[in-house]
């Protein structure tokens, strides 16, 4: 009996400096730990901060070739611009996760949408906006199971400097908790 | 820079990192370069890894100095490499010609970005394909390798170093911006099983040594400076000892050698991948990142019962003329997707019998699919074009 083939296309989008490419690398590392096939691709402008930035991660248990996400199973949008530009390419059963610190208008019908002020939450709970990417990653993984949480934790630990491991693990837990509480509100 | 402290042998690796690791594993012990997006990680990794192994990394003042430094170091016996992108690659052309003319082994990595000029530093393009063939002035053949995955970037980096040593010439490794920056899960091969080629050293006494000795295989032993062998190196046309010459007979021998050492070894140099070509009625010819889209398009077309295949060159120069003729014999339409205005297209037309032949034969079409706006050609772009052409 053949295993069920899955393929998840994930786009993490926003602007330069929000840690999206780092988040993409961490997610891809977690997928490697899960023994999945994975590609992680990125697109950004010549500037080191600001400008549109995005990371694509494709995770599958089968071989695949084209590395760019074209129809998203999951879209993370951390800016209004990214949300406007990419939400049209969500699959019908795709999931949109938006940071409503910056994303104020979402013009999508019949889509599973999660809106939370991730950046504000990071600032309030951790005193810095920097781990917003990890909070959203925790939220995304608990909601979608694209990678296992054990692998995600390991990937975060492996990817950040030793002095920031604790901070990022805290951020991960905040993401998980936000995901759990979001269901309760519904 | 990517850290790979993951327990399993499978690692998440970036294309640029794979190039650097491949080159180092092939024995590169000298890197001189001027970092430029999207090739910067190659220099970055070499700057960390080479000193650990007794190698040298030098950041030069520009790309002209970089190519000159790796040629000099190679003449002193090192295995050398530099990495750059479009604007730097343009500056290196004179040096690349010098390396070919003086038959000095070295590897130049060009991670292509949008051009012309400084263009689109962080966007993909395949517009340097012809520059890698004809960039330097004068008649000189080129060896250019072009991977389409992170693992293949590692493998072809090793092959580039091997071929440069074997054929005593400058080998170019061509990469797409997307591939250079992309990460994939890869399992690196066991290094003990990887074939590493080192240049042939002279065994004769120094007083008998000719730096450019004639040889039936057109490849001759190479001494290094500092080993007691005396030889002269110049970009001028030269005799067997390397001294300048204006004599037609000596120049002819030299030019023939430069040409024939590539043409007589096409079986060793040309590598292609045939993907579902055996029963294909429609073919795609694509290289690098566009071949990734083409592979997905082939699988999509096959699912709906269409006999589509892909022919992909891993060695882009010398161009795989014979393979194209062989594989395309029974094919009706050939689609050529590429991120430029037709650099591969015209080569395919030439290999298939020239533009006259193509236009006079209604039965076979060679169809371009082109983009040069910094975006990738998608599998859907290829499928849609196929639907348009009946």
Features:
heterodimer, A: 186 residues, alpha/beta, Pyruvate-ferredoxin Oxidoreductase, domain 3, 40% helix, 25% strand, B: 390 residues, Rossmann fold, 2 domains, seven-stranded mixed β-sheet, 39% helix
Summed up, what is this model?
By secondary structure, chain A is an alpha/beta fold.
What can you see in these coordinates?
Helices cover 40% and strands 25% of the residues of chain A. With 186 residues, chain A is of the alpha/beta class. Chain A has a single domain (7-185), classed as Pyruvate-ferredoxin Oxidoreductase, domain 3, CATH 3.40.920.10. In chain A, helix 1 crosses helix 5 (149-159) and helix 4 (132-144) packs across helix 6 (165-185). The N and C termini of chain A lie far apart (38 Å). In chain B, the strands form three sheets. In chain B, strands 3-2-4-5-7-6-12 form a seven-stranded mixed sheet, sandwiched between helices. Mean pLDDT of chain B is 94; it is low at 1-8. The longest helix of chain B is centred in the middle third of the chain and has 18 residues, at 150-167. In chain B, strand 2 (30-33), helix 2 (40-52) and strand 3 (56-59) form a beta-alpha-beta unit. At the A-B interface, helix 1 and strand 2 of A face strand 1, strand 8 and helix 10 of B. Strand 2 of chain A pairs antiparallel with strand 8 (183-187) of chain B.
List the helices and strands and how they pair.
The complex is a heterodimer of chains A (186) and B (390).
Chain A: E1 7-15, H1 20-33, E2 37-44, E3 52-60, E4 72-77, H2 80-86, E5 90-99, E6 112-116, H3 118-126, H4 132-144, H5 149-159, H6 165-185
Parallel strand pairs in A: 1-4, 4-5, 5-6
Antiparallel strand pairs in A: 1-3, 2-3
Chain B: E1 10-14, H1 15-25, E2 30-33, H2 40-52, E3 56-59, H3 63-75, E4 80-84, H4 86-101, E5 106-112, H5 129-134, E6 143-145, H6 150-167, E7 170-176, H7 177-181, E8 183-187, H8 248-263, H9 266-269, E9 272-275, E10 282-285, H10 288-303, E11 308-313, E12 315-317, H11 321-327, E13 333-338, H12 343-351, H13 354-360, E14 365-370, H14 379-388
Parallel strand pairs in B: 2-3, 2-4, 4-5, 5-7, 6-7, 10-11, 10-13, 13-14
Antiparallel strand pairs in B: 1-8, 6-12, 9-11
Helix pairs in contact in B: 1-2, 1-6, 3-4, 10-14
